[in-house]
Design goal:
Layout lengths: L1 E8 L8 E3 L1 E5 L3 E2 L11 E5 H13 L13 E4 L11 E4 L4 E7 L8 H6 L4 H4 L1 E7 L1 E4 L3 E6 L7
Parallel strand pairs: 5-6
Antiparallel strand pairs: 1-2, 1-6, 1-11, 3-4, 3-10, 5-9, 7-8, 7-11, 8-9
Length: 154
Amino acid sequence: MATILSVSISKEKGILKDAVPRGRLVEDHGLEGDAHAGSVRPVSLLPLASIQKVEGDLKRRGIRVRPGLFAENFVVEGLVAGDVKPGDALRLSSGARLVVRQIGKPFHTDNAVFRAIGSSPLPSDGIFARVARGGEVKEGDRIEIEASGAERGR
């Protein structure tokens, strides 16, 4: 079982996200108000463990680690990229359901994350998902791996 530690959104792609107290996941769209909603990778989860791997280096360089710094929607504790694979379903305690689309993504140097910190764990450790069932999402929500294998959740 994993826990959502933060929820973040941005109005534009390629910029750092801002933490919000709660969000609304919209089926087959993404996180309401986020620029990545409706895209191929509408929702991103970044494991806390991945952030902790780079946190010391960032602090030495004077960069404050905060939710949304890596352009992720959710920081999660207790779930790492190796725990899931494309097609796995993640059920949130609110009843919302995500289906993993991919692990990692190409890293682009023409975005605010690269300009601000020079690197990001999202390309290697990010978990990207689509929304199979909508609902509210907030800090403290639990995530459970519901299914493995073929995409389910409709």
